Amino acid sequence: MSKPIVIAVDGPAASGKGTLSRRLATQYGLRHLDTGLSYRAVAQALMAAGRPLDDEALATEAARAVDFSAFDAAALSAHAVGDAASRVSVFPPVRRVLVEKQRAFASQPPGAVLDGRDIGTVVCPHADVKLYVTASPAVRAGRRHREILRLGGQADYAAILADIERRDARDMERADSPLRPAADAHLLDTSQMSIEAAFLAACAIIDDALGGRN
Ligand code: CDP
Fold this sequence. Notes:
Blueprint: E1 5-10, H1 17-28, E2 31-34, H2 36-48, H3 56-64, H4 73-76, H5 79-88, H6 92-106, E3 111-116, H7 119-123, E4 129-134, H8 137-150, H9 157-173, E5 186-189, H10 195-210
Parallel strand pairs: 1-3, 1-4, 2-3, 4-5
Helix pairs in contact: 1-10, 2-3, 2-5, 3-6, 8-9
């Protein structure tokens, strides 16, 4: 059997990496894992138990209980859960437990597209292709703002922009697995790109990197 193909997609909040990764998984016949949901599930478990987000022992226990096949993506997608996730994701034991589960997912044939913050640097450093998807903070805040309004929620653009900038700083400055492009990642700045244009640009990079493999 041929070795599983792994495509790593990293980038900051609301960069469009989730939508892009889902489309890439369909295009290349691979499974998809949004690793952000695993950190969101840990945060959600603490919030549901009424515990503070700095309870490292309980967060680690919640990480052990995370089951990718049982995610309630709708409940985990709230903007506030994303912010809470970035707080529990600084704990090294939480990361160790979740990274091990993410690697197990990636190693199943036929392979997978994983999106997150540390896929190309830590989770799958030998990925076949690494993309680092980004966009300016103003563009990302605009996308998140429109998404919340489209789903019928209420949102303030300035507050979302401030949240995104705070989350970028927390994710990039943490000691364990900070958000940064892997040395061999292909940068994809989608500030001026539609979803379709970003998808086509990513496919061109992947086709080139995989060569005759797929
Ligand atoms: O969708 P959005 O980009 O807003 O967030 P997410 O991808 O669901 O990630 C939520 C938080 O989880 C991030 O801000 C990171 O702090 C953390 N995370 C991480 O540390 N490592 C990953 N591989 C994925 C997410």
